[in-house]
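In pairs, describe these two lines:
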Amino acid sequence: MKAAPTLSPAFLQPAGGKLPEPLLTLRQQRGKALVDMPLPTRKTENWKYSSRHLKLTEELATSLPSGRKAGPGLALDHPHILIHNGVVVPEASDFPELDGIEISSFADLDDDTAGQLAERLDNTLDNQAIQMARLNAARFEDGLYIRLKPGAVLEEPLYVIIETDAGASGSAYPRLYVDVGANSQMTLVEEYISSGDDAALVDSVTEFSLGEGANLTSIRLSLEGDSVQHIGATGARLLGHARLDSHTVGFGGPLRRHDLQVRLEQPGAECRLNGVAVSQGKQHYDNHTTIEHVAPHCNSEETYRNIAADESHIVFNGRIHIHEDAQKSAADMNNKNLLLTTGAEIDAKPELEIYADDVTCAHGATIGQLDDRSLFYLVSRGISRQHANTLLTMAFINELVEQIPVEAVRQTTQARLNQFIEQAFEEA
């Protein structure tokens, strides 16, 4: 019997970065736990469709160099923080002015704060299920720590630009920890971009901790180039009456993977997860979501829409888990998928796991093509067939894009999606 592949020892080399002692100790412990870590295969359930796209060659094991002072993408006129190749670049950032917010790189934390952070890292994620988050914990060279004090309100959206310079082969391990205090409120935009054409790996982890009554809007844009594999994980823990609004938009690549895990831990917590993924050529995109209803009287709403063109492949796996004590839970999941060509493929797997008897839950998934009657109607009114295809396809996802609450992000996203769709029909 052929032995299962394991993580190359090259990925276990000591990571660089000047971190406080508690975080260095944590990283060393995580690294020791990765020795002989099995890599996902087709027999790994949550990697069934994506394992063949994961290329962890030894040339990717080297950490990409940091220090470049790049300009931000969307955030020219807004508070923003640049993370370049996994390292925070303060001199290229514009920190928000608010007494109720603390922002620091991991490297600049004092030992007491770093010790508290080390105890909280990884507490929002099931690291046994998300193998690559474990690799991030062993390799991060820096990170971004954001703490919103109780009752504070950040009026403007805060942009975090995570840039990868793929001018050489290697890997980067961006890390964010966001502590949203009780009754505080903020909007966070994560924009993942890249430059260069060499093969690169981005293994990112973002964690949210929401106190009682906290309100967080999270917007995540995956916009890297075609040479970059992106494997991301986002975890969130919500206390009583906290609310998380999540909006994710992703464009395909050689491998795009995002695991989103939300735990509703106290009564009254609620979340809304909206997601859009598009792919073309031979690109691959994989969204895995999990919502854990741990406490009673919690609500969740999830809507994901995917578009695949050419010979590309998209995976959506959405799981809602209603725990035994989570009575009076309300959960709804909706997944719609659009195939633009016969060579494209979308695999959808909605899951409900319910152990409470007084709940209201529903889920559904559809996969189809553009409606011929609607297309005929538009063409018969003098609209070109290509433009009609673009209009109908954009309408399929625009309902979710319109819900992005930041106008600059919404407009940029619509323009990028429109460009993608027009190109898909040009090549069809």
Summary: The helical segments are 21-32, 111-120, 131-139, 372-380, 385-401, 407-427. The first strand starts at residue 80 and ends at 84.
